[in-house]
Amino acid sequence: xxxxxxxxLLRSGKIEFTPLPDIFFxxxxxxxxxxxxxKVILYIFYLLNxxxxxxxxxxxxxxxxxxxxxxxxxxxxxxxxxxxMEHGAILRGTLNIDSEPEEAYFMAAESDKEAIAxxxxxxxxxxxxxxxxxxQNIGIITPMIAEELKEAEKLYPPQWIDEAxxxxxxxxxxxxxxxxxxxxxxxxxxxxxxxxxxxxxxGGPDKYIRGxxxxxxxx
Length: 219
Hints:
With 219 residues, the chain is an alpha+beta fold. Helix content is 55%, strand content 11%. A hairpin with a 2-residue loop joins strand 2 and strand 3 (100-107). The radius of gyration is 20 Å and the shape is globular. The termini are far apart.
């Protein structure tokens, strides 16, 4: 919003409001320690609230063009976006806009996840960070578990990780050991659904036999 637009609103007495989801206050706000991250998240919610398209998204270019308005350098904004992803505040995807790949950000809501997954425009989507999933569904992350989570994030597609956590919660098996076994089984035996099988093929069979869990995955 420009200074002229802001002044016009004040003179007209018309004040608009940007709603924030309850999950922001319940799960995201307690994790935020960086002022830049908070500012970027609030600006994203503000921009999304004024979008007409569905699913609503904000491109990286749009955010960087507001660097002066936000009072932050571009590298600070990029770091804040990484933190917001890590804390589960937003989702990131890659859109094809005018035949060019463009990084875009979405609200981390179930409805948006479903719409994003169904959108043929998206070539990639980053689901909720594995550390945020662990904290919300299992508990405190120990140093040993942190290393295993990092390794799993390198080995498996983000959507597999997201769905493995959901399956464990549904079965009331809230442990990383159980979730790791789900991922290992999917990598070894394949996962139902064309999208998942395509992901496995794209990485090739060797994708899942490298790293810490390689000895557990059989061709």
